[in-house]
Design brief:
By secondary structure, the chain is α+β, with helices and mostly antiparallel strands. Helix content is 17%, strand content 39%.
Length: 209
């Protein structure tokens, strides 16, 4: 699999200024060509560029619904929500079949049409786990750098909640391939997404390496 050198935030800012803001765009993560398509390989969703032969788990995905801005340093920043769900000392995680192909708490992007981040949280938890959020307490609101997502951003501003939910979890075949309840001891050796590792460590569920 080829590797990608990444991008410069200022280049993206200039690129976005030339794109139709009212349309969705799927561009190569490496060369920004629109000649990119999704494939399924060994159960993972990857992207291939016909222009530069890039093959990897990320692309530049832009849509009118995506809530984002640029940091003072010029980095493309997405806005996201996530939540910790605990039952009897176990925490709900699922394994992503999309980049970064690791274990994650229920989480996702906060869309522009959602006035409140809790609205996005309720949607994401239901979509990814089948659980219905009853209450959500905001625990943290902060940037998490180094949080690379499949849509192309490396920085996310998070609204992170403690959730009380009803129902029994089920894996969403589009997002994940495994879901379950894990004790802190079981979580420790798992390969976790950056925000999952960040927030579980802040909560004391996971020990710092």
């Amino acid at each position: 699999m080829g590797t990608c050198p990444g991008y410069m935030g200022k280049d993206l800012k200039e690129l976005f200024a030339r794109l139709d803001a009212g349309a969705s765009h799927h561009l190569c993560f490496q060369c920004y060509s629109p000649q990119v398509r999704a494939i399924l390989e060994a159960g993972r969703e990857l992207y291939i560029c016909e222009a530069c032969s890039y093959k990897g788990g990320r692309q530049i995905m832009i849509s009118p619904e995506l809530r984002y801005d640029f940091t003072p340093e010029g980095l493309w920043r997405h806005f996201s929500v996530g939540g910790v769900i605990e039952r009897k000392g176990r925490y709900l995680l699922f394994h992503r079949r999309k980049y970064p192909f690791q274990y994650t708490l229920p989480a996702g992007h906060w869309d522009r049409q959602e006035a409140d981040p809790r609205e996005a949280l309720v949607r994401e938890v239901l979509e990814e786990t089948g659980l219905r959020v009853i209450t959500a307490k905001l625990l943290y609101r902060e940037d998490v750098p180094g949080d690379a997502c499949r849509r192309g951003s490396d920085v996310h501003h998070w609204h992170f909640y403690q959730c009380l939910c009803e129902g029994e979890p089920r894996v969403d075949g589009d997002e994940g391939d495994l879901i379950g309840w894990y004790t802190p001891e079981q979580i420790q050796p798992l390969a976790l997404t950056v925000p999952t590792r960040h927030f579980l460590t802040k909560l004391g569920v996971r020990k710092s390496p």
